Amino acid sequence: MLLPLKKEVIYGPVNSRRLGRSLGINLSPSRFKLCSFNCVYCHYGWTRKLAADVSSYREDMPTRAEVITAVEAALESSLEFEYITFSGNGEPTLHPDFPELIDDIVALRDRYRPSAKIGLLSNSTGLTNDRVRETVPKIDFPMFKLDAGIEETFMAINRPAEGIRFATIVDHLASLSNILIQTVLIDGSPSNVTEDELKAYFDHIRRIKPIEVHIYSIDRPVPETDITLVPPDELRRIAEQGTRETGITITPFYPR
């Protein structure tokens, strides 16, 4: 069964494989899935509103004031968490106030929970916005998606909104420093674990030079029935191969 959409701005804390106890921030609509990707493996199901420009959906998204109020209440509460993470139902960097909200949440964190880290789980499409790119150094754990090495595979897996180009995403990722890359590996149709695909993917990782790469596979129900998970032994092999070939630490994460 696919996961239901988050109904509130704040959710969790959730026990994350990578972030420990993480307080989630959802900047996307709660009534429908709005995203710039329509990934075949998304555990929230197919994207009802596929768009890179979300200005016409602004009234469906939480306001800056609503986000600040919700986050401040959580920070003042007795909830225990190590990370405050922008993620949610869709792509958080598409929110029109995302750059301002990063500044707001950093200030609230510094006031109430100075030991907490700010995280971002992003599909990388918001990096076409100069203002979004300028916020990245303010984020402690900026994690950006790269699910392919070849454009055709990118189109088949991520199924982006019109106008989004794979080469542009890679260029923007390569322009940033101190970021992490996350990659969902799948087999079947489509697949991003073929020899040619991995060779091209490792080439991109060498160029981007992230701090670290996290790879994992599907472990929840997904909307596309023709894809299968990549088993732990294969994830481990790919991580070891990639680390050798790129000089970047690639860490595999396994199903819960």
Layout of strands and helices, then pairs:
Layout: E1 10-16, E2 20-25, E3 34-35, E4 49-50, H1 64-76, E5 83-86, H2 98-112, E6 117-122, H3 130-135, E7 141-145, H4 151-158, H5 166-174, E8 180-188, H6 195-208, E9 212-217, E10 227-229, H7 232-246, E11 250-252
Parallel strand pairs: 2-5, 3-4, 5-6, 6-7, 7-8, 8-9, 9-11
Antiparallel strand pairs: 1-2, 8-10
Helix pairs in contact: 1-2, 6-7
Give the overall shape. Answer: globular
Structural class: alpha/beta
Separation, N- and C-terminal Cα atoms: 16 Å
What is the CATH C level class, in words? Alpha Beta
Would you report the number of β strands? 11
Unreliable residue stretches: none
Sheet having the most strands: 9 strands, mixed
Which radius of gyration do the C-alpha atoms yield?
17 Å
- Looking at the structure, the CATH topology is TIM Barrel
Number of helices: 7
Indicate the CATH architecture.
Alpha-Beta Barrel
Q: Give the proportion of residues in helices.
A: 25-40%
- Fourth-level CATH superfamily: Aldolase class I
What features would you describe in this structure?
The protein has helices at 64-76, 98-112, 130-135, 151-158, 166-174, 195-208, 232-246, and strands at 10-16, 20-25, 34-35, 49-50, 83-86, 117-122, 141-145, 180-188, 212-217, 227-229, 250-252. It is an alpha/beta fold. Helix content is 31%, strand content 21%. The strands form 2 sheets. Strands 1, 2, 5, 6, 7, 8, 9, 10 and 11 form a 9-stranded mixed beta sheet that branches. A two-stranded parallel ribbon has the order 3-4. It is built from 7 helices and 11 strands. The protein has a single domain (10-252), classed as TIM Barrel (Alpha-Beta Barrel), CATH 3.20.20.70. Strand 6 (117-122), helix 3 (130-135) and strand 7 (141-145) form a beta-alpha-beta unit.
